[in-house]
């Protein structure tokens, strides 16, 4: 899942080396939290107008995780 998030984010940003994805601790209801880190100059590109791109990224990851039977959340840091 980290690779999927990384590929999507690297397609959006200019500084591809600054993109990192880390996995946070699993919550009580077995939800996996992924933290997406990008450079400060690329933050707007990943979030998008009114958060539309961020919402789309979260939707794709949630759908992909649903196929394997897990729950996931993407946090953009």
Automatic annotation (TrEMBL):
This protein's record includes keyword Ligase: no
Pfam families, alphabetized: KH_KhpA-B
Keyword set, alphabetical order: Cell shape, Cell wall biogenesis/degradation, Chaperone, Cytoplasm, RNA-binding
Localization of this protein: Cytoplasm
Chief location: cytoplasm
Record-linked Gene3D superfamilies: 3.30.300.20
Database matches in PANTHER family: RNA-BINDING PROTEIN KHPA, UPF0109 PROTEIN SCO5592
UniProt function note: A probable RNA chaperone. Forms a complex with KhpB which binds to cellular RNA and controls its expression. Plays a role in peptidoglycan (PG) homeostasis and cell length regulation.
Subunit structure: Forms a complex with KhpB.
Family: Belongs to the KhpA RNA-binding protein family.
Protein name in the entry: RNA-binding protein KhpA
Annotated organism of origin: Yanshouia hominis
